[in-house]
Amino acid sequence: MATKVLMEALSPTMEEGRIAQWLKHEGDTVTTGDVLAEVETDKAVMELQARADGVLRKVLVGDGQTAEVGSLVAVIAGADEDIGDLGAAAPKSKPEKQPETQATPAAASPTAAPAAPAAPPSGDAAGERIKASPLARRVASERGVDLAAVSGSGPGGRIIKRDVESAVPAATGAARAGWADEGYEDVPLSQLRKTIAKRLTQSLAPIPHFFLTAEFDMERAVEAREELNARGDVKISVNDIVIKAVAAALRQHRACNAWWQDDHIRYFNDVHLSMAVAVEEGLITPVIRHADRKSLREIATEARALAERARARKLKPEEYTGGTFSVSNLGMFGIDEFTAVINPPEAGILAVGALTPKPVALDGTVTVRRRMRVTMSCDHRVIDGATGAQFLQTVRLMLENPLAIVW
Which domain, by its residues, includes 53? Predict the structure, then answer.
């Protein structure tokens, strides 16, 4: 009996997925559990698995195309089985918009000559078609890469996207120069960038943000970090110390460790701290669960592992959902101060700036101390000004007296 291969919801917030590449192709024998394709979701690259044994008889959504969750993308059946209308079904899919470049418009003429026959795809010799995925062909066309000169690493020597990308440095500079001459390049949105745009709109439009800024003396925290790193095998970052301090403060201020839920506010007893990680196509917030119960060493180890998986697009859904508060740090980029957008349904996010040596008055004398500015973005439906200010007072206490959080 024929089995429909549907675009599955591979993440809790996924509405559509893009086929990054098919790992099985029409005519291939598959068994239950085989990975059929890699799918780019709104957060990561996930695997689409076979749910039946048989032959992959028909692929309805090609490499580089998107399909809504629940749409038919392929058919598995017996080698000689009649799959009827399934092979011609029109899935809810859409090809990626091709990048456009600015060109000088030409006037239309009713007597224009008929269009010339289409040229063969890039790298195809007469009578012989090079095996390449549709996405690889598109990228090759955009970047001026001759497919005939590219070695394929896909199944059966098929050229896939990464093969073309690795060949780009060998391509002539003409195509690159052409981009500049034509003025612009249109690049289709990734699933991650689409999700970021949607969630930012959901955050800034309905959530009444207000902001609280404070400056902390980080001298003792930095000294404690240097001492810990000199003695331990796990390297502690300033951001790890901030995460630990925020988690400990949230334990004391449950009013900030909350979600807005339209008709009620959900207050959490546990602290699941989201940390913003910059990836190639945007931003993702992996979650350190029970951060208030973990040691500084455990937080440092877990934060590093989560960041590496985030950049590799290998996070599991449970690793980036369920956060109760967020921390976003741009200090390593030399940013002194900024405001961050709340990640709904969370009620707050702390934006952390750079450590900066500043002259300050201390015990009647002027001395140089390392200082750090932070800004807390608050959802005023959940957090009042005094509530947020008290939370920041506790964070200050933790960071300026680091023995409170080291143990």
Answer: 3-94
